[in-house]
Write a structure and sequence with these properties.
single chain, about 90 residues, alpha/beta
């Protein structure tokens, strides 16, 4: 609220990317582990459907593979260790 963002939670499921796109977001923030399918796969689907959509992936830790996959799908990776400031920068930058 302080940032004047409208935040909408979408439950994980087999149509997660479609559910997100139906809301016409400017930015999507999702975990790398959604409980249903990989966050990287969802990010790739979102970016394929809407090239200019900003996607931020949240991960517990940063690894070379996680960074490489995030770049490959056109997303920005933010980890728990990065903190809220990095998340805000990834969303607004």
């Amino acid at each position: 609220k302080k940032m004047d963002w409208e935040v909408v939670a979408v439950p994980a499921g087999d149509e997660l990317a479609c559910a997100m796109l139906a809301r016409k977001p400017a930015v999507v923030v999702l975990p790398v582990e959604t409980g249903w399918e990989s966050g990287y796969l969802v990010a790739a689907k979102l970016r394929a459907a809407k090239k200019r959509l900003k996607v931020v992936l949240l991960a517990a830790t940063r690894t070379a593979d996680a960074e490489k996959l995030a770049r490959f799908v056109g997303a920005t990776l933010v980890t728990d260790a990065d903190g809220a400031g990095k998340l805000v920068t990834a969303v607004t930058g």
